[in-house]
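Provenance and format

Records in this collection were gathered into a single text stream. Each protein contributes a sequence line and a token line. The two records reproduced below are adjacent in the stream.
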Amino acid sequence: MEKKPFIGKKDRKIALIERLPDRSATGAEKTTPKTVATPWAFMDDISGNEDVKGKVRHLINRIYVVRYDPVIKEKGTALVLIDEGKEFEIIHISNIGRKDHLEIKVKLYE
């Protein structure tokens, strides 16, 4: 996507979370989710397909466009994107314009 979307197209409320390492009371390692940002986003489905190797897996590739946020850009692929209760793995974050918008490419195996 070369240009920023019209503001009315940003109709999805997403959450970007970071998984922080933590220890339980017994000393076991666990991860604690910390919400970094909850921006409005424009979503575009790139592709989706099914892989049949013993079981059916569905691959979803999407692009989300949000307003520029230096924290999101800095943490990059260490974050997880949540949309409609599904957790997407962030593959790449790139700038659109000069500190105008961010394009977030994600994937999900179901």
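Adjacent record:
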Amino acid sequence: MSLGGASERSVPATKIEITVSCRNLLDLDTFSKSDPKPRQPGVAGVRTDRGDRQHAQPGLPTQIRPGLFLRGEAKPALRCVQRGLQNQHLQAGLPGTSVPGAGRGDRRPGQPCGAASHDIATMQLCANKLDKKDFFGKSDPFLVFYRSNEDGTFTICHKTEVVKNTLNPVWQPFSIPVRALCNGDYDRTVKIDVYDWDRDGSHDFIGEFTTSYRELSRAQSQFTVYEVLNPRKKCKKKKYVNSGTVTLLSFSVDSEFTFVDYIKGGTQLNFTVAIDFTASNGNPLQPTSLHYMSPYQLSAYALALKAVGEIIQDYDSDKLFPAYGFGAKLPPEGRISHQFPLNNNDEDPNCAGIEGVLESYFQSLRTVQLYGPTYFAPVINQVARAAAKISDGSQYYVLLIITDGVISDMIQTKEAIVSASSLPMSIIIVGVGPAMFEAMEELDGDDVRVSSRGRFAERDIVQFVPFRDYVDRSGNQVLSMARLAKDVLAEIPEQLLSYMRTRDIQPRPPPPANPSPSPAPEQP
């Protein structure tokens, strides 16, 4: 499936980012801290990066990247989501601006970068002899980067992953836009806090240090070591030296290409759908089932399919979707399958458009027996095999899994995700129903990178969203679908870019525009 035509349909838009920090929130949970998740009135689906307990802490503001685009005219909700995907991580077609990617790569640290900088910094850090914070273990350290503002405040710009049970962590390399780090001022203060992660969100402050983009850039030729200082401990203990050290192991600056740069260059997105047909979803003939085919409204599964598919198919040249089910007994012999084609065609599992997927899904519900167990690994590995065949950046694969959250092959699924993290592939999981989804949250490696047999995922390729967070209370299904689609599609551009960066794949030049045909000569 080819995702194209972005430049032709772009409209003037400005993407905004909001940073929110809360203090002295009421503690509404009996045995733990609150789980605040801000929503902006009148805007569909505005969410924080993570709705976890750490946001109750005053020292950890959170970034909201709502995908809002300021326009001069109102559009239907779903169409705004579609254009939001086009404009993700770029400002394409803005009057008076050049296309992102043009004329980059010749700037060096020390030169003014300005607001128009598209450079991206990649760095890796480690720490040594950090303070021990856990009673029964060592510490689970992570770093929080802040950019200083003109009024003396600080704005969060990056959080690293958590490295468990160590005082000498080595964090994975990460990339950040230079403009996010310094906002055009290479000498602007960058503050880094070191925390010990706690499951209940009461992260322990280990210490802090400051630097600048100019100072960080010197690590291109030398290691830089920073002392981690805790002001409270420094005041209380006369012999206090530090709370450990952090070493900048590497730092590099490269040109940042955009999602649309790759799409214009011919990169194609291939979407695959996988639907949970296990018995935990309930009997489809009963109204209590998550698969219940009501004559009056769509089920949660059908809504999730329709929400994402109606946006995706607008970018698809042939409008064909490979669609599978898993966890069912198939007629006539009752064989259990964890990757059966919804259209019952093993040779060609493609369905024509989202309506074709829905039709095949409804037909499968009438013919198969919901059973189990719930295995994710088979369908992940199937898509991964296709993604492994083409690694030159011309193809990128996205697997959408819709499930009720009960998973039976967690170990195998983690192994499949770790293996797939080196491939041009993303996995989106939409959870339906009332489950707590702890396993899905674990697979979504925003806080702790997924690992298997001591090997960590090369990239974070999994995004999990619970469907219930997007249901409009007034019963407006169109608004619910718009909210869900926006967040489901939000991470695809950055995950595609992260793969291209790790493989040093640059976008191909866009094909030349077709010249206008010459008018036919007049007949005498």
